[in-house]
Amino acid sequence: GYFTVLQSADALEWELMSAISRMSGQKMDMIKFGKSLKLRSRLHAANSDPFHDGNGRADALAMSCLLLYETQNGTKSLFQIRGRQSQALRKGMLHTVPAGMFQSPFEQPDEECSIFHCFLWEFYEELFGEKDPSSSDKKTMPTWFYARPEVEEICNYLETGYATLYFTGIAIDLLNLRPEILLMLHINKKEWYKSHSEKEPGKGGFKFNEEWSKYKLAPAYKEEKKMFQSLELNRGSIAPPSAAALVAGIRCFSQM
Prior knowledge:
Largest sheet: 7 strands, mixed
Distance between the termini: 37 Å
Oligomer: single chain
Strand content: 15-25%
Structural class: alpha+beta
Helix content: 25-40%
């Protein structure tokens, strides 16, 4: 579960970033610095290849998707910024959307643990404000939300060519050694964003998930440098998995 990931994999990131901040402005002895990372040292002692082997931590598989959509004024991108106080990591950073962990709240992994199912759930949850499915006793099947109009719409777009979902790669976040599946969604229906932004939240309109404080729209470009400038990126402004999804997605977009 999420909290097991925090206590093992994400704890590696917290330990590393905390140690770096303490060394700010000082001459760094890399051997001494490495020995100060107790959690990471313990992991490497128990696992000779933690980059490829998940033993010794909860290396939860996750997904990050770059969302690009067409408008009358060209291609746009949609990102969100994490702002909820209860989120332990990466508060204030830019994140691709949809994104999330592979989970099986209904304990039916054959249906739930698929890239497409994960994508659809996170799309619906993060853009239209749906709560965790395990919190309601009315939702008894993993695919209960497939019948929601917003999900039926994007599935129809994918079937008819008005949208395309690309698998763009797999990345390993070296801060916490967690694997990330990278996707890019391109929506070619020019009315999509305008339609949902004009409707009432919760009634077909965008209702962004509560863990996000705000969202960011930016023109999308096929050149990485122009895209970085469009997003006003600087060091530490984007979450690492989202950075990977952004670069892989733009490289895919440039081939279209």
